[in-house]
């Protein structure tokens, strides 16, 4: 079963969690991560074509529910995603998501997909893409602080895209580190479980922070950040949630996806509104400098942006053809006469009688 063309669409292809896993194993997870990074990079090069807005968020004391829409004028996409750190106490995921890709010319959906797995993959692919541009040349060691659901994806993406081979892992919960060590065994890493953040960052050229607690936290302090490192800060992704001491931000060159969103949700929410940042798309297109020397501290204040989900949905749709890894979802009314929607409803009742 091939993925339908937009003009043939009388149903919506739906990729379930089961089919997403089947598709990813067919592609191969490292290849999926590099493929996603390539699509994300392509769309950063087209950045100025996209409609952009900070995500539409409903915040509560328990977490956040967000919609993330964007369009390049030809296709439209949105993602529904939540972030509820307390969920793990009840055996639930911190983040769940689904997304839709549509054709602008008709408004018809082209794809509906789970995005819990896909968000984990695209987040990691985005981090690795940024590190490809900003990390020190020859970087092979990463400190991975926070060993929860995102950690393995970050590690595998950094290996696939940037060549990271040594991981130094730390989590306040030793069981999380044990889990990550177990899952990453056999993937070509040298793995070191560390007893503190300070131990984890020793010798690391890349420091990734991906903790989940919804609070102003200081996971990484200024004295632990040496010259020349690249910091991949992805855990601070909603108001009231940060991971880095503000003095680190003052010393680093900070790169973001979309400033109006990051100033609300990222590490830079700690800083004045005029705090200088560089938009990552400018580095990709060569209109702004990235890493300039081996003493520079670069910091990616990554909160996730809608164009990256757009890229991920495009990538999955392009990989579906010929796989059969989707269901035909009867989501769209399709009357013989598009002006006679009521007639379609009435005839269905007549048939039932």
List its traits:
ODC_Mu_crystall; Rossmann fold; Ornithine cyclodeaminase; 8-stranded parallel β-sheet; 353 residues; 2 domains; ApaG_domain; single chain; alpha/beta; NAD(P)-bd_dom_sf; ornithine cyclodeaminase, domain 1
Molecular structure report:
Pfam families: OCD_Mu_crystall. This is Ornithine cyclodeaminase. InterPro entries: ApaG_domain, NAD(P)-bd_dom_sf, ODC_Mu_crystall, ODC_N. Residues 1-124 form the ApaG domain. By secondary structure, the chain is an alpha/beta fold. The protein folds into two domains: 6-117 and 307-352, ornithine cyclodeaminase, domain 1 (2-Layer Sandwich); 135-304, NAD(P)-binding Rossmann-like Domain (Rossmann fold, 3-Layer(aba) Sandwich), CATH 3.40.50. The chain is built from eleven helices and 17 strands. The protein has helices at 17-27, 29-45, 116-134, 151-162, 174-184, 197-201, 246-251, 259-265, 280-285, 306-320, 341-352, and strands at 12-15, 56-59, 64-71, 75-83, 97-103, 109-114, 141-145, 166-170, 190-193, 206-209, 216-220, 230-233, 242-244, 253-256, 278-279, 298-301, 327-329. The strands form three sheets. The protein has an eight-stranded parallel sheet. It has a seven-stranded mixed sheet with strand order 2-3-4-5-6-1-17. A hairpin with a 3-residue loop joins strand 3 (64-71) and strand 4. The chain is globular. The protein starts with 11 loop residues before the first strand and ends with a helix.
